Structures
1.
Amino acid sequence: MAQHQADKSLEDTDKAGISQIKVGVVLIDRFNMMSLTTSLEPMRIANFLLLQSFYEWQYLSFENLEVTASNGMRINCQAVDESKYYDIIFVCGSWGCERETPQKIEGFLRKQARYGAMLCSFELGVYSLAKAGLLDGKQATTHWSYIAGLKEEFPDIDVCEQLFTQDKNIACCSGGIASLDFVLSLIEKHHGVHLVSEIIDQMMYHGRRPAQTPQRNTLGNANGKLHPDIKKVIELIQSNITEPPAIPDIAAHIGISQRQLERRCKDHMGCSIVQLSQILRLEHARTLLVSTSLSILDISVASGFNSVSHFSQAFRRYYQKKPSHYRKAWPEREPRPVWSGTFLSFNNQPNLYHTTTPVNPLDRKKFISPTIGSGNIKKPINVKPVNHTQAVKPAGKYLPPRG
């Protein structure tokens, strides 16, 4: 490819015709192997079908020349050459990137951007772009389990939950199989839909999805995709997480009776609307605990709880740990992090309450302390608003619950 121009995007040069794309794949320790594999395989197959090495990539590292993925596999890398420029930069990072990234990566990314390289983050590699100031005012995404933390840490970024985003020469991908959808979209811009169709046939992947596709469809529902009404309930609660709406307001918003809404939630999710709301808020709080330095008080307010004591009590019942213990339980260099349960994942755990009989904790009255009055979710008491982005960072480093 010709020498980059600082104000020229990759898409503009595509239209003029190019002979090769050079990709620098920056690997950060504990990166997700699936994100890497699904991003490179479409390019490898494209080369095979084009009978030329149109896409050429190099593994790069700012730290060790042998980088270990979260599944233990190791990749030999080259040391980053600051004087070398690429057409595309992939930043592959997973848990740990929200706390720290290689010191030189931010300057490297800014320099590559000035010379017209396309910058693409995968999963938590988005933190490298964010810390470099390259996402301010732009739309971005990451794995759904870290979206809440990314929003709190970088309020100037338009964070959304979808497979991938692209704003000219800056792209963010949520990772996993979404990396395949994202790279297929890049190849289509270079070579058109016909080559992409052949790649899809080669990979036997016929479920290609557009960028705006939601990352989650089931939230633990064993029956498949969520019922449309339940999806609306979840979206409404999540968009008002700090002040959860009352049940009559939710029913009115959806356009069905309160009794019908309760029955539908019980049938499809195995819990009441009150319990569903609290689970969603606890999941939100858990994300903030492991991905931000916000205080327990700030997190309880940001998650829509009346008080720290109420928040701690509900959190302990759901996760079997106090919020402070949950946060401190993640040592700095945990080789294999443990996800201690996600939405409705406790349904068939017989030992959750130290019993020998399988129980559904959502059906137990003591599982959740409902903040309700006459069947309605009680809104939080008047609490002085907290600016979460200005919370004082405590000493110590914590790791998130993803592998």
2.
Amino acid sequence: MDVAMDFTTAERAQVLTQALPYIKQYAGKTVVIKYGGNAMISEELKAAVMEDIVLLSTVGIHVVLVHGGGPEISAMLKKIGKESRFVGGMRYTDQETMDIVEMVLAGKVNKSLVQLLEEHGGRAIGLCGLDGGMLKAVPMKAEEDLGLVGEITRVDVTLIRNSLENGTIPVVATIAAGENDGNTYNINADIAAAQIAASLAAEKLVLMTDVRGLLEDRENEDSLISVVRVSEVQSLKKRGVISGGMIPKIDCCVEAVRRGVRRTHIIDGRIPHSILIEMLTDEGIGTMFL
């Protein structure tokens, strides 16, 4: 049954009334959304994300979509008989893998997202970190060699700003040009989104993930911590509340806030329309960092 049928006209009006102050608050402001995980695989969730982004853009909010594409890269590597290898959560990227990353991210995934946004009534343009010198990088320093995994050294958001001024949604694939070695580098999408958000002085950075947010107890989905102050992060790490795969995500949020992004959020991309729930309702969703 269509869920919309369960709404009375009065309830719909109430929903719109509740959203209005938030629409006014964010109109003309920039929001960077990092998109990945399950929300990228499920067709239903993908459609909901595109609808959310087009709606925000239509009411005058400047949305920048930064995306990864891990599952698609792994699938393509499998097709050519190459094993995906991860070191500390990062994909080990040799030259052959980098060629696939560039082809899949900047080609297939990026352009399919542009097409989807257009199908849902938006105007979008596909960009990658190589365009207009947007992202420059050097090899990431790590305990183990990661190959062509990059650490961003410079961000130039001129092309992104131009797109937003033209009323177009920029869709950004996270690969970068080598600072001075002629290589291209694979960049973690969370890190890229945080640095792009900081360079744009964005109002919000939203990281879509496959978890509810930061949980006090990882085994208990109901132990969500709704608000975290940046000053509390160190003690949460010491207590083990922030651990494993959440550490790099939260470090990105902290870095973005320290560099001038007003608020950052980790939200559950498994929930349809989680972006709208976060941005345009009183309740919000996920964990907010201030």
3.
Amino acid sequence: MPEKDNLIIGRNPVREALRSGTPIDTVYISQGSGGLGEIIALAKEQGAVVKTADDRKLSQLAEGGAHQGVVAFGAVASYASLEDLLEVSRKKGTKPFLILCDEIEDPHNLGAIIRTAETAGADGVIIPKRRSAMLTPTVYKTSAGAASWLPVARVPNLGAAIDRLKEENIWIYGTDMDGSLYTETNFDGGVALVIGSEGNGMSRLIREKCDFLVKLPMMGRITSLNASVAAGIFMYEVVRQRSMRG
């Protein structure tokens, strides 16, 4: 369920928000409603996700407000582009270091990952447009403000983004229990670290696109870690290895 803090309801408010460049994550359109072509076009032009819903769902989202067939949820900040993230390491003169979130849907996990990525000196975080948490107030709060400093790119297709990273000679490291121990993995060169979803890990397609698979040792009865905790361990192994090489 999107967060109510960023709720925009009604045709004119949503239209004007889109026209003004207000960051919009998702626009919900009533099934069968006419006269919404401009809003749909503006939403797609801005890169917002457009979903159809019945009137009952829209009324629930709008909490009883007069939605007029359209409800939108805005982001608390603008998203960067993938090229923006690639430019960060070029300007710093360092090897790329990016975090890819493969369907991380819990906003607390996404916020914690952004927080750790910023402290670890990563260049940015990449999330997919669908099946992912967005830059909501909860994400911002959980990131302890790091979301204000670390660019987050939202891409239509994570697999295509990986292909673009490979064109820049960036190695893709997927986190998977079938991988090699993270301490025995060489994180030299450009690094893109893929963190899988809370329940299912990486999707099959993303897993197949990885150059390396890495894992954490599991010595207890529980065979998995919280996604953000695992992400932090992997990120700081990259930091450790880079600091040793100077």
